[in-house]
Amino acid sequence: MFNNSETQQQVAEFLLQIKAIKLQPTNPFTWASGWKSPIYCDNRVTLSYPTIRTYIRQQLSSAIQETFGSVDAIAGVATAGIPQGALVAQELGLPFIYVRAKAKEHGRGNLIEGEITPGQRVVVIEDLVSTGKSSLQAVDALREAGYTVAGLAAIFSYGFDVADENFKNAKCPYFTLSNYNALIKYAEEKQYVTAADVEMLKKWREEPSTWGQ
Predict the structure, then answer these.
(1) Residue 127 is assigned to a ligand binding site
(2) pLDDT for 109-160, tens place per residue?
(3) Is 126 annotated as a binding residue?
(4) Which of 48, 98, 174, 175 has fewest C-beta within 10 Å?
């Protein structure tokens, strides 16, 4: 699988510089799940920075070819995976489709938007992997529609053990350009956070569902 330390550090640097990732160990965020978190990630912000957007597009594209070999199409996961997936599809000269969070409630009632041939080999694009639950719902939808999912690629992962377990159980290999460990290492080196903050950030990753309660 993809494991390029230079890319991991560069992506971590970009995400911190443009505040796509914010670290607030002493003033935590509340996620939609209700979890308290010292980190918040919104990789949509990368789309507003052409140089960073281009770097991510190129790195995802080359890593997909290196990791999954020849594929027939790219599938984005709604909503944040759609623009990233479309950029990668353009870079690789491949068809693009995307998977809705739920089927459309009018018209044709589509869950998957776009046209490719069932049986084709597809790579799924996400912006972020947390537990992997929403990503794997898209993988299941594609498989049920008759597509072969080669794997999933994303910009960043929190590195939760549950995500690795979920992807393993789904028999869906995945990689991310950067991850939590690379981010924290870079953030400490560049003094985005203190040594005490780092310990707090590491503890959160061990027990994210109960941290801060």
Answers:
(1) yes
(2) 589 999 999 999 999 999 999 999 999 999 999 999 999 999 999 999 999 9
(3) yes
(4) 48
User: Which residues on adjacent β-strands are paired with residue 76?
Assistant: 98, 125
Q: What is the CA radius of gyration of the chain?
A: 17
Q: In which element (H, E) is residue 124 found?
A: strand 121-129
Continuous segment of H or E residues that includes residue 178: strand 174-179
pTM value? 0.94
161 in a known ligand binding site: no
Q: Strands 36-37, 39-41: parallel, antiparallel or unpaired by DSSP?
A: unpaired
106 annotated as belonging to a binding site for a ligand: yes
Pick the CATH number of 4-206 from 3.40.50.10840, 3.40.190.10, 3.40.50.2020, 3.30.70.2470: 3.40.50.2020
131 annotated to a ligand binding site = yes
33 labelled binding-site residue: no
Question: Binding site annotation covers 207?
Answer: no
Please tell me whether 130 is known to bind a ligand: yes
SS3 at position 153: strand
36 is in an annotated binding site: no
Question: Is 129 a known ligand-binding residue?
Answer: yes
